[in-house]
């Protein structure tokens, strides 16, 4: 067996509806099921989803108070008042700044931007920053990607005579802030048909309203901020990102183009993944380490030399950020591993940890330990702990923390993530309380889940089908990249690849079918040795098209696998046996029938079975390894039948070069008998070397023949010498128990050492699938 890392959740849809939709839209049935799950059920919805160029964005004046905002900004421009765009330090925040600043500059406004420092000011508007703006002559502040929850700051702004327009998309509080205008898609008075815009989407709407037409040349910035902020990629967000990706490919913002080149990103092939894994992390990096201004400056500059300088600074910051994440994650894991138990929630902290990257560290810990994680950095001067938390689906992190808000000086978040600040002295109590809050969680709750779109057959998969899938992009929240399940696959040519051999490459086939699918799994190379030749493997992954030498072929990016049945592994060769000995596994037991074998196992878990005593397999294990061979196969049968392990490894001492003994023929018995009779009393030990030299027998054969004579009462041993008995009746050799045992031992060794994998598997299968002892002869016959 191989147990999947993830829980696989498949959303079922009506087969009849899918068939009907497939006929209506003239598409493949699996593709129709994908569209149903995305609530695309008509030709019109289909057309809008796949052909954004035919459609316009929504009227910005449907947003409540947009007319008030436009009037006040145009007044400020006309009077040459000083405008301050107050932003945020993440990718959504800096792209929001860039969109609005470019629009204001185009209109001739006297405008600058301000980004609060993550470490000294924190997120959102603050009174000292507003006071400073007032003293510097600012007449109007426009917030972007923040401000909706800063009620007290907005009240203060009104008191000091500072006009403020709030544009934001975060969850509003019970009342709107006191401001000249509040532009928010969830404003209670709004008639806007879509309420999931990112901060940059709201800024773009304000720009549209100010200009009287869409500034489509800014859509690349809108796409970057929207994808980076993980908002729903449906409805208008999908349209904005689709058009923005086109702008990114064909005429990108100078700063984005230079940054992409520095990062070796091909903007002409840009997708949402280019943004999510390439551009957004770099724009975020500077704000995680210090002031975020360079990111906004990069997006606003029109000077190629300045763009190059800023791009290099940002790329260097990203490299530094990555290393800090690696170092902090290592420290956090060392702290966790030092604990007596993991607990149901991981609460870990350290002095001087960079608070800007702790959300990333928390996410990595959730990935490693599959538990909610809160990671905090402690300021050694102030004694204040500040950090972030990430959760699993079964645990509502916000609610758990909200119950103990009294321990914290600042707190916010949602079910899966939170930010918090508290005195370091309260950390131990918070840890204890969170363990109680999470006490209901079970091991099943700690397993991450994958949403599976559909089960497919290999015959469903083609280049044309995958081409259709790619049209579902851009992928993101509420439009995930499809993950498919393929059941009972045979894996052919499975091997490790990559410089460090950490990746897996294989070929998927179904029984008695020539159809095959290339598959590659990144970071799962360790599974190669865990897949037996006979395994029927369930795999899940994403489909793509691999092009090589102008030939296009489907390919699966393997994300997880499951083998729902027991497996047999043949480790009778030296290299495989050496690998098994080097591995350490608490779920593995080595079965030995000879004491000499135990000495070769080192510290491996083992049991020594004494064949002369009654044996009961009163243990359970996931992995059972037969290290050597008993004299009869019934012991192996008994152990397998009673333990029913998930994985069986057979070695049978094969790699030790052991020779299968041969039984002397009847002529040899007659020759030895004649010599003993002629020279009795016969000192067997004394004459053994001469017998070996003369007849070519070995000592084991000589001892064996002698013991057969004793067993049949042909002779007896007295004082180390053999004497022939007076035999009354003639007896056959095979009447001897010693002879019969040797025949059985040799037969056993031959079968176990020389049977092929198929024969061994068939034999083991008969034991694994029935509680009745099978006939050992089935091994030889392959049944």
Description:
Strand 22 (623-626), helix 21 (634-643) and strand 23 (647-650) form a beta-alpha-beta unit. Helix content is 41%, strand content 18%. It is built from 27 helices and 25 strands. It starts with 6 loop residues before the first strand and ends with a helix. Strands 3-2-4-5-6 form a five-stranded parallel beta sheet, with helices on both faces. The chain is of the alpha/beta class and 783 residues long. Helix 9 packs across helix 10 (235-251).
Topology diagram in text:
Layout: E1 7-10, H1 15-25, H2 29-37, H3 43-50, H4 66-78, E2 82-86, H5 91-106, E3 110-114, H6 127-135, E4 140-144, H7 151-159, E5 163-167, E6 181-183, H8 199-211, H9 219-228, H10 235-251, H11 254-262, H12 272-289, H13 293-300, H14 304-337, E7 346-351, H15 358-369, E8 373-378, E9 384-390, H16 397-402, E10 410-414, E11 417-423, H17 427-437, E12 449-452, E13 454-455, H18 463-470, E14 484-497, E15 503-509, E16 516-521, E17 537-548, E18 551-562, E19 567-570, H19 574-582, E20 588-592, H20 595-598, E21 606-608, E22 623-626, H21 634-643, E23 647-650, H22 666-679, H23 684-695, H24 699-711, E24 715-718, E25 721-724, H25 737-754, H26 757-768, H27 777-781
Parallel strand pairs: 1-12, 2-3, 2-4, 4-5, 5-6, 7-8, 13-14, 16-18, 19-23, 20-21, 20-22, 22-23
Antiparallel strand pairs: 8-9, 9-11, 10-11, 14-15, 14-17, 15-16, 17-18, 24-25
Helix pairs in contact: 1-2, 5-8, 5-9, 5-13, 8-9, 9-10, 9-12, 11-14, 12-14, 13-14, 14-15
């Amino acid at each position: 067996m191989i147990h999947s890392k993830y829980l696989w959740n498949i959303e079922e849809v009506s087969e009849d509806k899918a068939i009907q939709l497939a006929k209506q839209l003239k598409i493949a049935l699996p593709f129709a099921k994908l569209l149903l799950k995305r609530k695309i059920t008509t030709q019109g919805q289909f057309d809008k989803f796949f052909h954004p160029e035919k459609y316009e964005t929504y009227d910005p004046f449907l947003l409540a108070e947009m007319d008030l905002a436009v009037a006040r900004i145009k007044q400020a421009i006309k009077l040459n008042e000083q405008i301050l765009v107050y932003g945020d330090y993440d990718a959504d925040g800096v792209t929001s700044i860039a969109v609005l600043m470019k629009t204001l500059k185009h209109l001739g406004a006297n405008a600058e931007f301000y980004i609060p420092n993550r470490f000294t000011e924190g997120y959102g508007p603050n009174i000292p920053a507003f006071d400073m703006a007032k003293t510097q002559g600012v007449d109007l502040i426009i917030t972007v990607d923040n401000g909706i929850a800063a009620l007290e700051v907005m009240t203060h702004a009104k008191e000091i005579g500072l006009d403020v327009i709030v544009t934001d998309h975060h969850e509003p509080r019970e009342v709107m802030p006191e401001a000249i205008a509040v532009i928010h898609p969830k404003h209670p008075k709004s008639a806007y048909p879509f309420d999931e815009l990112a901060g940059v989407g709201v800024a773009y709407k304000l720009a549209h309203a100010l200009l009287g037409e869409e500034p489509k040349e800014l859509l690349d910035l809108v796409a970057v901020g929207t994808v980076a902020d993980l908002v729903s990629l449906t409805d208008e967000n999908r349209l904005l990102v689709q058009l923005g990706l086109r702008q990114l490919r064909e005429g990108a913002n100078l700063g984005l183009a230079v940054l992409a080149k520095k990062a070796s990103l091909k903007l002409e092939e840009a997708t949402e993944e280019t943004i999510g894994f390439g551009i957004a992390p770099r724009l975020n990096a500077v704000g995680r380490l210090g002031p975020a201004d360079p990111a906004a400056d990069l997006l606003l500059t029109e000077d190629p030399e300045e763009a190059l300088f800023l791009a290099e600074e940002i790329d260097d910051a990203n490299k530094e950020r990555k290393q800090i994440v690696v170092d902090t994650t290592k420290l956090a894991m060392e702290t966790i591993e030092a604990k007596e138990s993991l607990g149901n929630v991981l609460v870990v902290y350290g002095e001087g940890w960079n608070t800007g990257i702790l959300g990333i560290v928390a996410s990595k810990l959730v990935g490693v330990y599959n538990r909610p994680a809160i990671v905090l950095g402690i300021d050694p001067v102030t004694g204040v702990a500040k950090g972030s938390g990430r959760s699993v689906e079964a645990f509502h992190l916000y609610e758990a923390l909200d119950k103990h808000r009294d321990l914290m000086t600042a707190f916010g978040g949602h079910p899966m993530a939170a930010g918090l600040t508290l005195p370091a002295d309260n950390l131990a109590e918070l840890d204890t309380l969170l363990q109680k809050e999470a006490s209901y969680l079970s091991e099943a709750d700690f397993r991450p889940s994958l949403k599976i779109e559909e089960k497919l057959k290999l015959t469903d998969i083609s280049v044309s089908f995958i081409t259709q899938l790619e049209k579902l992009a851009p992928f993101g929240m509420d439009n995930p990249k499809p993950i498919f399940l393929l059941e009972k696959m045979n894996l052919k040519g499975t091997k490790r690849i990559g410089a460090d051999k950490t990746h897996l490459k294989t070929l998927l086939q179904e029984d008695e079918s020539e159809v095959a699918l290339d598959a590659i799994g990144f970071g799962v190379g360790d599974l190669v040795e865990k897949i037996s030749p006979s395994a029927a493997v369930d795999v899940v992954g994403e489909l793509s098209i691999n092009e090589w030498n102008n030939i296009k072929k489907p390919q699966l990016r393997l994300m997880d696998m499951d083998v729902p049945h027991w497996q047999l592994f043949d480790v009778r060769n030296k290299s495989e046996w050496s690998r098994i000995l080097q591995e350490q596994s608490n779920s593995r037991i080595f079965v030995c029938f000879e004491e000499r074998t135990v000495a070769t196992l080192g510290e491996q878990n083992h049991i020594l079975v004494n064949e002369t005593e009654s044996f009961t397999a009163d243990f359970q294990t996931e992995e059972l390894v037969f290290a050597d061979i008993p004299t009869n196969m019934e012991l192996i049968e008994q152990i397998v039948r009673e333990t029913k392990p998930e994985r069986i490894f057979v070695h049978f001492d094969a790699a030790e070069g052991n020779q299968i003994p041969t039984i002397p023929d009847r002529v040899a018995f007659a020759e030895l008998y004649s010599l003993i009779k002629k020279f009795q009393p016969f000192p067997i030990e004394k004459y053994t070397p001469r017998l070996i030299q003369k007849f070519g027998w070995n000592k084991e054969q000589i001892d064996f023949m002698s013991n057969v004579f004793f067993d049949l009462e042909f002779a007896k041993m007295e004082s180390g010498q053999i004497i022939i008995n007076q035999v009354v009746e003639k007896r056959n050799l095979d009447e001897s128990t010693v002879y019969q045992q040797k025949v059985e031992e040799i037969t056993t060794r031959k079968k176990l050492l020389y049977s092929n994998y198929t024969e061994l598997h068939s034999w083991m299968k008969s034991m694994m699938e029935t509680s009745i002892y099978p006939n050992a002869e089935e091994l030889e016959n392959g049944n």
